Amino acid sequence: MAISTRTAQPVAPTAILPPLSRLSSYSTERIEQALANLRNIYASYSIPTRRTPALTHPKHILHTVSAPDSGYASAEEDEDGEPEDTSDDGDDEGFDIDVLRSDPFEREFVIRWLTTFAARSDTWVYEPDTPEGEQLRTQLVDDAASLLASFAGKEDEEDALTRSFSFPIFDKHGRETGDIKVELNDAPLLSQDHTSVGLQSWGSAIVFAERMCADQQAFGLAPAGHIRILELGAGTGLLSIAAAKLCKQTSTAAEVVATDYHAQVLDNLRSNVDTNLDSSSPITVVSLDWQNPVYNAPLHEPFDIILAADVIYHPEHAQWIKSCVEMLLRRPARRSDYIRTSQEGGTFWLIIPVRSTGRHEGMAGTVETVFRSEAAIKASGGNKMELGIRRMEGMGKHSGIGRADESCYRLFSIGWLEP
């Protein structure tokens, strides 16, 4: 059954939302009409304008599923497999949209449908021979995520999502020696504040944590005396927690500082740290505003390792982050202004998803604009060190991880370079 996006009288979601067990068979128009009907019903809820992550779970990582992802049908189906039309073309004198909007059964149904749609959106967005193109379908996934986020914080009716991860550890010979387990609370997004996206875990952080645990030596987390580790835009704290657990397992003395800006994100971050580490936790959680940073303790001393995952959503973000890293990353030891010793400076590890569509398309390119390559710095003929890209590695997207608009990831090793 199709509905017009200009329908004067919304239809009950249980009567109109298509069954998601056959999502791949639905046209772009069908999903667009279904979302338009939901907007007509729940228009009084503010919708954030910033992207929110799809609720996906990596297949190769252990997790608990708090969000339903079953193949339930959205309504009783007729013989042709389509939802039965329970609507009426005429005006219903007894219709009251406030009654429909406040119906707890309909509301819970909508939340479950949107959650499952987001989780299964990847295959639908990239369905072969789609005449509408990926960009329009990706935008509809964004709209669905925004609708889902609009229910957050409303009378506590949306539950948080607990996600459990298990990342294998390997020694220098490639033998698996154990694993790092992390349990995170992905709190509901705040519909009234688009800056609360740090309440959710992002695909790039999951991919980076897996890689870091598999080769801790390459990321400077092997035993080597006392090290200081900083995470920028920590969000749920996956990288900070994984790094702290790695250091503890290898008996590496480490001080870890996890930073973010949004108050609710920081509260959730502290909760995740408490869940995963005991009272002797080496993780300190502090606020850091990249645009107007304040470098009070524990940010008053340099760091050996700085981590960041999916932190650039505006061209200015890369420049703000560079300014912070210039202040916070340990510089190489020197005998004089121009003679370098054998002691190297710290490393800034930054992973960014490559998004080929949508409003954040091209943001990965701002990293290479702000941080010059080693070749470019050496060719510049200057006489001062600057932060530059030592190397960049492309990383493929894992099945079941990340948003539909993420095609792959770029992992940057950034450090102090001399001309």
The class by helix and strand makeup works out as: alpha/beta
Strand content: 15-25%
- Assign an overall shape: globular
H and E order: HHHHHEEHEHEHEEHEHEHEE
Describe the sheet with the most strands: 8 strands, mixed
Query: Could you name the ranges where pLDDT drops below 50 across 5 or more consecutive residues?
Result: 1-7, 44-94, 189-199, 337-342
End-to-end distance: 66 Å
Q: Taking Cα atoms only, what radius of gyration do you get, to the nearest Å?
A: 24 Å
What's the number of helices?
A: 11
Percentage of residues in helical conformation: 25-40%
What's the count of strands?
Answer: 10
Give descriptors for this structure.
11 helices; eight-stranded mixed sheet; 419 residues; alpha/beta; two-stranded antiparallel ribbon; disordered N terminus; 10 strands; 30% helix
Summarize the structure.
This protein is an alpha/beta fold and 419 residues long.
